[in-house]
Ferredoxin
Amino acid sequence: GQCILACPVGALYEHENINDIWREIENPDKLVVVQTAPAVRVALGEEFGLPIGTRVTGKMVAALRKIGFDKVFDTDFAADLTIMEEGTELIKRLETGENLPLMTSCCPGWVKFVEHNFPNMLENLSTCKSPHEMEGALIKSYFAKRMNVDPKNIVVVSIMPCTAKKFESQREELSNQQMQDVDYVLTTRELAQMIKEAGIDFVNLKDEEFDNPFGEATGAGVIFGATGGVAEAALRTVFELVAGKDLDTVDFNAVRGIEGIKEATIELPNGAVINTAVINGLGNARKVMELIQKGEKNYQFIEVMACPGGCINGGGQPIVDKETRENIDVKIARSKAIYDEDKSLPIRKSHKNPYIKKIYDEFLGEPNSHLSHQLLHTNYVAREKF
Ligand code: SF4
């Protein structure tokens, strides 16, 4: 923490983390595992001169293997898992009418904002940990068991578009048996730095695939990277769970787009209505929260991302110079890449992910089970107002 104060651009702090990870990789006693958030793959290429909006998923995986990570996992898998857990939570809350609106909890900037500014609405936050934290918890339990490795010798590194995730990963409650779920968070920029330090010719890398069991994700997991994506992913699954059968509904265009506040009224197959608000930027979130507190708005589901445009435009993403920004809308180009990746995937609904089905069958039981609560859910604390 101190370095952030000493070094206003965070460069010192960034470099410290990179050196820690090189040290862990060189330690033969450690199994060092990495996972990457959805928004990283649509921006990392910019650091190597590729046009904004280029998808580099396969090259990113190849680079991570070359750097020396023992397993390369996809946080998108846990985004699918989040939808199973949070979708089930939403269905339950709609039935009981309690703690509505359900507010998403995958953005630590937003969660902290609620803790500081709206402590009387902490119960409205989904109890789901954010996807990379869920995946970290599973790596140190389910995966450790499968590999027959002591979880204390596993190091989990998350590559995130986000600087707030560094703080999040150190939260005491995001741990299990005295181990943090995630040990280190690196930003997209820091990963680029590591790739450069390793002397890897990124642009000419051949595509490689993520490792299993956390390597398969659906289009729903991918769209978490753009504002509106979590809401859309949840709706894809909640619709079918409520209907009890397969449906053609995949695209929910009403929640897409980079406007700061979007509203949509969605009728579920059982007639229940979900008034949804999708918000990006904390100034917009404050406006909506004040309307809710005054009783002027009535929602059942709210998605909030602290960064304008969502994680594609997070604080850890490549910095685009002013001249380029005048010619291209970075948020639109990166979010187009996210929705293209979604469309390119054979499975686009979280509950259809075969590895998700498998982990419930083999390990977790069912969404919101006792074990799910123990590993995948968390709680929040009121913090001083600012
Ligand atoms: Fe982090 Fe911004 Fe994404 Fe929130 S919206 S998780 S602060 S990158």
Q: What stands out?
A: Residues 1-10 have pLDDT under 50 and may be disordered. The first helix runs from residue 2 to 6.
